[in-house]
Write a structure and sequence with these properties.
The protein is an alpha/beta fold and 333 residues long. The protein is built from 14 helices and 10 strands. The strands form 2 sheets. A 7-stranded parallel sheet has the order 1-5-6-7-8-9-10, sandwiched between helices. Strands 2-3-4 form a 3-stranded antiparallel sheet, with no helix packed on it. The relative contact order is 0.13.
């Protein structure tokens, strides 16, 4: 029986021979206590409204499951004046002190001893940061109305993102990076493929290219409809598209990709409810495994961008049902 990491690596190979489905995030050890994470997302506190390192107002009411940026008091109300209002966080200046990395390095070493892939975490991608600063409607309109200034702002965010990745690579030497950026809704892209290729692909080519040059596995989270960009994602060197929704026709993508990129997700978030029953959770997970498992290069998981579910009983049953499927199908738990 292969270890969790060995099985994952076989799943990623075009002609690999995994002996079962990878079970959710079993191979990954997520490091999310590094100084950049703390600087950029450490302000997200349930029950409070705060401002993040970019000056974006983040609200998290007690009765809300997630923290969200608010469009009140926009940091960038006018893209043509963005240099006057947007202050890019100085990650190198604030996060380079080796002492700040002590806890993250200790967690990374713990995961290494446990035989897991040390996986650095990067939330809030380039497009997400742009619409946090100005709101979704303005972000989408500015591609059309003010493309030159939008290019300049995205280039600045891209440089920030590159320095973020570089700090992670140099200090943690991770096996993988889980990088977020949603480029679409559940059923469509937020922009045309041509616009995405013009504004975003070169920025991610630089960031993910640096990761690949340092032997880092690229895991890109996007619980979005991204079918028109799949070949571009392969071009970028993305090893795993995490969060893939069933609105993308996963079976068709498996046939198209032929192992050039692994798909992770498929388990719809509708089962993640306080009142969801064991039977309906198991039925959803089993359906996902039976539908996409035979196509290969697929990892069943909830479509969220990190391990776990909002309601703990859901994740426990999800992982156990994948285990049962593996036993039933491959004779290995």
């Amino acid at each position: 029986m292969l270890s969790a990491v060995e099985n994952l690596k076989e799943t990623l190979k075009v002609s690999g021979k995994p002996d079962r489905l990878v079970n959710d995030y079993e191979a990954f050890g997520i490091v999310d206590n590094d100084p950049v994470y703390i600087l950029t997302r450490g302000n997200r506190i349930k029950g409070k409204t705060t401002k993040d390192a970019w000056g974006v107002t983040i609200t998290w009411p007690e009765d809300q499951l997630f923290a969200f940026p608010t469009e009140d008091d926009k940091v960038c109300p006018d893209i043509t004046e963005w240099k006057k209002t947007v202050k890019v966080p100085d990650l190198v200046g604030k996060c380079s002190d080796p002492a700040l990395w002590k806890n993250a390095k200790e967690l990374a070493e713990k995961f290494r001893r446990e035989g897991k892939l040390v996986t650095a975490y990067m939330g809030t991608g380039i497009f997400e940061q742009a619409h946090d600063l100005m709101g979704m409607a303005d972000a989408c309109m500015n591609f059309l109305m003010e493309p030159e200034d939008m290019h300049d702002l995205l280039d600045a965010i891209g440089e920030y993102r590159y320095q973020y990745a570089k700090l992670l690579v140099e200090n943690l030497h991770p096996d993988a990076v889980l990088s977020h950026d949603d480029w679409g809704s559940k059923t469509s892209l937020f922009m045309s493929p041509e616009t995405w290729r013009e504004f975003f692909k070169p920025l991610y080519a630089r960031i993910y290219g640096m990761m690949k040059e340092n032997g880092v596995m690229v895991v890109h989270h996007a619980d979005s409809y991204l079918t028109p960009l799949v070949e571009d994602m392969v071009d970028l060197g993305i090893d795993i598209w995490q969060g893939v929704l069933n609105t993308n026709d996963i079976c068709k993508l498996q046939e198209q990709l032929q192992g050039r990129m692994t798909l992770m997700g498929g388990v719809d978030s509708w089962v993640d409810r306080a009142d969801s029953t064991e039977d309906e959770i198991r039925a959803e997970v089993r359906k996902v495994c039976e539908t996409y498992g035979p196509g290969g290069h697929f990892i069943p998981s909830i479509t969220y961008g990190r391990p776990g579910t909002l309601f703990p009983h859901v994740n426990k049953i999800l992982v156990d049902e994948i285990h049962r499927y593996n036993q039933d199908t491959y004779g290995i738990g």
